[in-house]
Structure formats: structure tokens, C-alpha cells
Design goal:
Length: 191
């Protein structure tokens, strides 16, 4: 019996981005991304392993080499729209947010269960790591293009910042492709 259940939900890719290595998280829009087991070549979060960051500081000293489960940042179009509205903006450019991908059609996307899978028609498969909590870096990028709005980002994006993911099966993703959502077949944790 499969331990991942196919859901009725499919996400259409509406935007793809490449986050270059360097001091900024600003992404560059792309029509497609080639994914290897290490993520997207040349990206900020490329690699099988990576130095640990603040997300796991209670487990590892910052900079400790660990498995890279943050190869991609995936956002929801619906959640982007809600965040923009709360900030008083007509739209929120995903390039400001260090996004690898934006999908439309999966409700409550930021809270899909960890270990869920997003799978393309050709078999390319991404594994959901966890919710990507808002931080101050996207706010800096918003502020650069929309002066006076950057400080509002973190609060507006709480619970709507999307997820981080890693590549389980490589392949190509293009704008307009769809990804089917599979969720773990297990009850919620109840200690």
C-alpha cells in the first residue's frame, strides 16, 4: 500500500526564478528550470549539502555542513496575492522574495504537510521540507523597489511564505506545467 496519497490538487507553475549566488536573494525570472539532484546549477541554494542556517540553530551550530533540503523556495500565487493586498500593493513580485517557483491551485499551500510530494507529468518530483517562515531579506528587496513597503512584508507574509523543497527526481520545469500534490498517509502527530 502506498504511503503517499494522491490528492485532487494540482498546482500550475505561473512563475520560475533563478536566485544567483551572492549577497541578495533577488531572483531572475526564467521560462524553465533544469533540476538535478542538487537543485538548480549556479543557484544560491544549489548542492547536496549546505551550511546550516538559523532555521536549525537549535540542532547545529550555524555553518555546520548538513543535508540540503532547501534547494527550492516555492510560493503560492493565491498567498502572494493575499500578502500583496495586506501590504496595500496591487502585486508582489516573486523575484523580490527569492522564489524558485510560484504555483496556483493548491489551497493553504504554505501548510501542506512536510514530506508531501509535488510531481510533474514527466516524473520530476519535489519533496516538501517545511514552511518557509518570513524573514527580513525579502523586505529589503521589496523596499528597494517599493519604498515604504518593505517593513510591512514580514507581518503580511506570516503563514503565507510558501515552502522549501528538495529534488527527489530530476527533470525540467516550465511555466504552465502542472504539479500533482501527494501527501503522507499518516495521522497528525498526537503525543
Amino acid at each position: 500500500m502506498p504511503t503517499l496519497i494522491e490528492t485532487e490538487f494540482t498546482g500550475e507553475i505561473t512563475w520560475l526564478g533563478h536566485v544567483p549566488q551572492g549577497d541578495t536573494i533577488r531572483a531572475e525570472g526564467r521560462d524553465f528550470l533544469e533540476l538535478s539532484f542538487d537543485g538548480v546549477a549556479g543557484e544560491r541554494h544549489f548542492g547536496t549539502n549546505a551550511p546550516s542556517c538559523v532555521r536549525v540553530r537549535n540542532l547545529h551550530a550555524e555553518g555546520t555542513e548538513i543535508r540540503n533540503v532547501r534547494q527550492l523556495t516555492i510560493l503560492s500565487q493565491e498567498e502572494l496575492d493575499a500578502t500583496a493586498a495586506e501590504m496595500g500593493l496591487a502585486t508582489l513580485d516573486p523575484s523580490w522574495l527569492g522564489a524558485s517557483m510560484v504555483v496556483r491551485g493548491i489551497p493553504d499551500f504554505t501548510h501542506v504537510p512536510p514530506s508531501s510530494r509535488l510531481q510533474g507529468a514527466d516524473g520530476v518530483t519535489l519533496v516538501v521540507d517545511m514552511e518557509n517562515r518570513p524573514c527580513h531579506f525579502p523586505g529589503k528587496e521589496v523596499e528597494a523597489d517599493k519604498p515604504g513597503c518593505g517593513k510591512a512584508y514580514k507581518a503580511a507574509a506570516t503563514g503565507r511564505r510558501g515552502i522549501t523543497a528538495w529534488v527527489q527526481r530530476p527533470g525540467r520545469l516550465s511555466i504552465g506545467n502542472t504539479l500533482k500534490l501527494f501527501v503522507p498517509d499518516q495521522r497528525s502527530w498526537a503525543p
